[in-house]
Amino acid sequence: MSKQNLKVAVLLAPGTHPVSGRPCAAAADSAALALAMKLVPSPQHLLVLYAGDADDSALAPYLAQGVSCVNVLPAVAGADVSRVLARQLQDVDLVLCGRRAGGGQGSAMLPYLLAEELEAPLLPDALQLKVGNGQVEVEQYLPKGQRRQLAAALPAIVSVHERASAPLPYAHARLQQGQIRHLSPANLAPGVCHLEPANRRARPLVAASKASGHERMLGAIASDGAKAGGVVVKQGDPVEKAQVLLDYLRDHHLVDF
Amino acid sequence: MFNDRAIPRIDPRRPYVIGPSGLKRIVLGEEVGSRELQQNAHGHSSVKPQRSQGPFRLRSLVVLHTDRGALDEAARETLAAAAILASPDTEVVALLFGGNADSVAAAGEAGADRVLLCADPGFAPQRKLAVLAELWQREAPSRLCLPDRGADADLGRRFASRQGLAVACDVIEVVPGREVRSLAPAGQFAVQPLPPVLLLARKAADARLPFRGQGNDGGVLALPDVGERIRDLGTRSCPASQLALEEADLIVSAGNGVQDTGGLRQLAERMGAAVGASRVAVDDGRFAREQQVGATGKTVQASAYLAFGISGAVQHLQGIKECRHVIAVNLDAAAPIVKRADLTLVEDCQALISALNQLLAAERAANPVLETA
Ligand SMILES: Cc1cc2nc3c(=O)[nH]c(=O)nc-3n(C[C@H](O)[C@H](O)[C@H](O)COP(=O)(O)OP(=O)(O)OC[C@H]3O[C@@H](n4cnc5c(N)ncnc54)[C@H](O)[C@@H]3O)c2cc1C
Ligand SMILES: Nc1ncnc2c1ncn2[C@@H]1O[C@H](COP(=O)(O)O)[C@@H](O)[C@H]1O
Hints:
The complex is a heterodimer.
Chain A: E1 8-11, E2 15-16, E3 23-24, H1 27-39, E4 47-51, H2 56-64, E5 69-73, E6 75-77, H3 81-88, E7 94-98, H4 110-118, E8 122-132, E9 135-141, E10 146-153, E11 156-160, H5 172-177, E12 179-182, E13 186-188, E14 194-197, H6 213-227, E15 231-233, H7 238-251
Parallel strand pairs in A: 1-4, 1-7, 4-5, 5-12, 6-13, 7-11, 8-11
Antiparallel strand pairs in A: 2-3, 8-9, 9-10
Helix pairs in contact in A: 3-4
Chain B: E1 16-19, E2 22-25, H1 35-44, E3 58-65, H2 73-85, E4 90-97, H3 101-109, E5 114-118, H4 125-139, E6 143-147, H5 150-163, E7 167-175, E8 179-184, E9 188-193, E10 197-200, E11 216-221, E12 230-237, E13 250-254, H6 261-271, E14 274-277, H7 279-283, E15 304-308, H8 314-319, E16 325-330, H9 337-340, E17 343-346, H10 349-366, H11 368-372
Parallel strand pairs in B: 3-4, 3-6, 4-5, 5-11, 6-10, 7-10, 13-14, 13-15, 15-16, 16-17
Antiparallel strand pairs in B: 1-2, 7-8, 8-9
């Protein structure tokens, strides 16, 4: 499939700065944007979608990062975001979205719901992306320095990891040129959650204990003592100790040599 | 008025017994109570009682991917959360992907009443979903808990969207029977009613339970033969030198006791480990600022952390809280790091590093096959 007739859509949700709460570009969404720009000859070929009722100024950071036009599906109470977006994405080959919506507000559920809605495979946490021969190949981020290669036939959905690309440069001129287009109203369901100020720490679930005060005190001492129970090796020359270290690593399957 | 009667004194070390309401001193002349009794009480308290004896009417399901058969802290916390939320007639059923006999016992200790095992073929969402859907149908659990990280987070989200179940993600606080909270930007909580599927963030529950689960072996589930739409082309690990410290699985870290930085870097290369450093070593200019581990540096999550010549100041230990195995090399057997370390070698760093380098070089020379592997 050539670059020209591959239809790529990018889903953008406005980000919120984690501390100040002001609108900003979300890292994962701009990484998705950066990967998408490499797949098409020019930004005009991208279908950029947002469903919701956020202010235009909240989407402006993406314009400054190179989007030529954001299509906004306005929100009226009554339907899911994923269903509204899915209707617009029926004939798209590749959908790119962020792993999690900006500032940690998102639940990272949208890609999964959309995949069910479109019955398309979802390749999660992409770092790199290759498209060719009607299939998409993705390098998936795994913790601890592991990377996995995944491939699937198009059409597919790819959620992009924050680390996939360095932040796109911000250009005010592009912000001025870009446009935000409001499409005809769709019906959106109100979210199930509400916000409240977090003026205390979250309380972890703690099991009710029937132990007496004295037992609890003993327990506290015992658990401290157990932590100090590492093995200390003083005997032997450096070579023997080095062997002890290697044996420990191998016994616990921590190294593969 | 002057009183010349002796003041009655109470011997602070007189014998005592330990009863349900704590320590009870023994009155003179009474025969019960001795120091041996206290010793027995210590031994007894190490075996925890079972949370519930059954019979069970309801079920609560926990799904976990094990880390090479071991349960990590996030997994234990999720099991603990399910056990704390469970009523006495609710059985906590755990499904472990990639678990073994040891993980069955560990999961029982962490709160599971029945443990099912299933092989972990890596990336296989459709097959795992099929196993889970079958289990969901058969056991009809009232709740599903998973840790919100890695493969569990992916599977939980796929399952919830496939089954159309309400789900709460990144939950940091559960109010039993009512609602859950997660963090939202700008210092806010997002609050939603308690859904059937819970994806828990770290520290949503305290993993230190006063009870344990029954830990029964529920057998092994076979992965059904369902077609995958996504092909897994294999996993590789990045060379450690290209990795950010936060991502590395094996870290060799140097403190003020390491003079021979060349030898340490060579060792890290031979072991495929990332290089970290303490603040003193960084301030000295021996390592780069982005290699600093600790309160003002990076927080690392390595499975193994090798601390060479690091005293283990609290600010440094903060950065390695999440490390599973800590190995310390220090001349001082009383350094604070020894308390944190699982293995301590009391030895000069320079000598040990060169000994390790030589051992590894000798092994490579003896097994040239390993070099290409
Ligand atoms: C606000 C604040 C923030 C801080 N943040 C950090 C931080 O983020 N990260 C951090 O690391 N520190 C931090 N520190 C500094 C911290 O308190 C310690 O000073 C520092 O960690 C000590 O580093 P060290 O263990 O390498 O050095 P030292 O304390 O000098 O310890 C050296 C150790 O090496 C051993 N040793 C010496 N020679 C040898 C040898 N030849 N062979 C074997 N062992 C040997 C010694 O016995 C000793 O235990 C912070 C301090 C403050 C006040
Ligand atoms: N209302 C929305 N409109 C368009 N895209 C969205 C919307 N919400 C989320 N997304 C995309 O889906 C990703 C995951 O979002 P979330 O599930 O809300 O965390 C985000 O990074 C966006 O790319």
